[in-house]
UniProtKB/TrEMBL annotation:
It is found in: Secreted. Coiled coil: none annotated. GO terms for molecular function: galacturan 1,4-alpha-galacturonidase activity; polygalacturonase activity. Residues 41-104 are annotated as: Disordered. Residues 55-66 have a biased composition (Polar residues). One of its GO terms (biological process) is pectin catabolic process. Specific in hydrolyzing the terminal glycosidic bond of polygalacturonic acid and oligogalacturonates. This is galacturonan 1,4-alpha-galacturonidase. Residues 1-19 form the signal peptide. Its EC number is 3.2.1.67. GO terms for cellular component: extracellular region.
Length: 489
């Protein structure tokens, strides 16, 4: 605490309105603006939650602050992330006389117009720039305002420790619509690209990502996939990433997206995006994976009003376990195969120990009439209550046309121990393409009961070796069978 005193003194009574980055050795400590409690020494971050000893290159009382407090300094150019630099200037030492240069460095924005909305993006990016390689970045408790896109894709061997709240602005929707970074997939884009290698980002159950999603929901007015509406966090061209203990509230669009990445583990996450207006939360998926492999998703609780965990094209070796989803599209492979000229492959996926409440579907596969394959997928120990149409497979999602022309094979798929209640009288509806019938489907311990009693129907079409699949089909499933029903059939 004491070593920050000169800084506080220099600022006079005013608290800094913007975050401040202090670098000590390979560690950057970021304290949010307008929060006196955040003006703490890094000693207050429990050592167990740090990867490095921040004191290793500093020496307590003797510390000195290098800072730029020039009141004449002009405002930075708005919208210039990373425009910060270091402007070292020795402060008088408490003991008088000149102090030796210290390992501590500090950077913070030059004075801005008092009317400017607080934007901590430059400081956040500065911390990533200074400590994003072989370093640690600690975001202290408090609120960080993010008004600009963030591209932190050159990280290497970094531990990111977040104790505070990141709030993405929504009073500048036009900015986001035109500046979100493309993630190429289906024209989608993102507010934050995170990539590189050997990255851990931990929130200790305290980090909160607030996307101000209600504003996005209200301006989107139930439309799907608005161009430029940003995914909250995209893991992009990354290897060896561990993300843990972060909570999302009101995401702008999908909460997370994993693309062109390998060996990504995401554990103990909570997400909740629920509209409180007449407009619905749509396209607020928990996560989507695409062109990625070796992914572990464990212990998530998600309320999202769209797909909870969605495995898209060219994903392989994905293990999802211990996930609870409310108001969602649950566990899903797809959509894939939208471009028949570009095959999509999904293989080696396990979803297990999943609980679902009030979902559209439970354990399902959705493809367009395209090319590629889905193979070796297991849905195991899935329990649910009040799911519209629990087991669902379609070869022609959304259009429900051209269903029997799909060449996208669906093979070696297991549904084991799938139990719960369906909202209507259909437990399973499976329409495979007659041109590429589903093969090697295995069902065991399927116990799905309609909420209103009676027995549930099992509708199937174009399943090879249906008799030995373990599924007792009660009738055919037309290609036009919708993803969700509005009543008994
Ligand atoms: C990773 O960075 C830490 C400093 O944060 C350093 O001590 C360690 O040697 C680095 N590891 C490798 C493999 O470079
Ligand atoms: C993100 O930054 C990297 C450099 O770190 C750059 O190569 C890449 O083009 C940037 N991406 C976007 C979308 O601007
Ligand atoms: C996968 O990433 C984790 C970090 O999440 C790392 O500890 C592990 O060594 C990586 N595995 C491989 C095979 O690189
Ligand atoms: C699972 O995640 C919740 C937060 O959603 C956390 O409280 C709990 O400790 C986690 N369980 C394990 C075993 O990490
Ligand atoms: C999600 O948020 C909504 C609205 O704030 C709330 O009603 C609901 O209980 C939350 N869900 C969970 C699982 O916390
Ligand atoms: C599984 O989820 C439950 C309920 O959220 C949680 O209490 C438990 O810690 C989780 N276990 C693991 C291994 O993540
Ligand atoms: C999937 O991977 C295949 C083969 O690597 C590639 O041809 C195809 O373009 C990829 N599909 C997508 C949608 O990226
Ligand atoms: C099927 O996927 C599981 C889980 O990823 C994997 O362990 C198994 O080896 C795969 N089987 C085949 C035949 O590839
Ligand atoms: C899933 O649950 C079963 C039964 O409770 C347990 O034996 C298994 O270890 C769990 N799997 C995972 C990956 O947590
Ligand atoms: C079936 O799944 C439930 C959770 O839905 C689990 O409690 C039970 O142990 C599983 N049964 C078997 C035989 O694995």
């Amino acid at each position: 605490m004491r070593f920050l005193a000169p800084f506080l003194l220099a600022l006079g009574a005013a608290r800094p309105a913007f975050a401040v980055v202090v670098k000590s050795g390979s560690t950057c400590i970021v304290t949010p603006g307008a929060a006196t409690r955040a003006m703490r020494s890094i000693g207050l971050v429990p050592p167990a939650e740090r990867d490095v000893d921040p004191d290793s290159s500093s020496s307590g009382d003797e510390q000195n602050i290098w800072s730029d407090l020039d009141p004449e300094a002009g405002a930075p150019k708005p919208g210039a992330p990373g425009s910060l630099g270091h402007y070292p200037r020795p402060m008088p030492s408490k003991k008088g006389g000149a102090s030796p240069p210290s390992a501590l460095e500090m950077s913070f924005p030059r004075r801005r117009a008092a009317t400017a909305a607080a934007d901590d993006t430059p400081q956040i990016l500065d911390a990533f720039k200074q400590c994003g390689k072989d370093g640690t970045i600690i975001f202290q408790e408090g609120t960080y305002n993010i008004r600009q896109v963030m591209n932190t894709t050159d990280l290497r061997n970094v531990s990111i420790e977040i104790h505070g709240t990141f709030v993405w602005s929504a009073d500048n929707i036009q900015y986001w619509l035109s500046h979100s970074y493309s993630v190429t997939y289906a024209g989608r884009s993102t507010a934050w690209l995170l990539g590189g290698r050997d990255i851990s980002m931990r929130g200790f159950g305290r980090a909160l990502f607030d996307g101000n999603g209600q504003v996005w929901i209200d301006q989107n007015r139930n439309a799907g996939n608005q161009n430029g509406r940003p995914i909250s966090l995209t893991i992009w061209r990354a290897n060896n990433v561990f993300i843990d203990g972060i909570r999302w509230k009101m995401a702008q669009f999908w909460h997370t997206f994993v693309a062109h990445s390998q060996n990504i583990t995401m554990t103990n996450l909570e997400m909740n995006t629920s509209s409180n207006s007449q407009w619905k939360a749509v396209n607020t998926d928990g996560t989507d994976t695409w062109n990625s492999k070796d992914i572990v998703i464990r212990n998530w609780t998600v309320t999202c009003h769209d797909d909870c965990i969605s495995i898209k094209g060219n994903s392989s070796n994905v293990h999802v376990s211990n996930v609870t989803c409310y108001e969602s599209g649950a566990m899903c492979v797809g959509s894939i195969g939208s471009n028949a000229g570009q095959p999509d492959f999904v293989e080696n996926v396990v979803f297990e120990n999943v609980s679902l409440y009030h979902s559209s579907n439970a354990a399902w596969i959705k493809t367009y009439p395209g090319t590629g394959y889905v193979r070796n997928v297991t849905f195991r120990n899935i329990h649910f209550e009040n799911v519209n149409q629990p087991i669902y497979v379609t070869s022609c999602i959304y259009s429900y046309q051209n269903c029997d022309n799909s060449r996208l094979g669906i093979t070696d798929i297991h549904w084991e121990n799938i139990t719960g209640t369906s909202r209507y009288n259909v437990a399973a509806a499976i329409h495979c393409s007659s041109r590429a019938p589903c093969d090697d489907l295995h069902f065991s311990n399927i116990d799905i009961k309609p909420m209103s009693g009676g027995t549930a129907k099992v509708l199937c079409s174009n399943i090879k070796n249906q008799a030995s699949s373990g599924l007792a089909c009660t009738g055919p499933c037309p290609g036009s069978q919708p993803q969700q029903l509005s009543g008994n059939v």
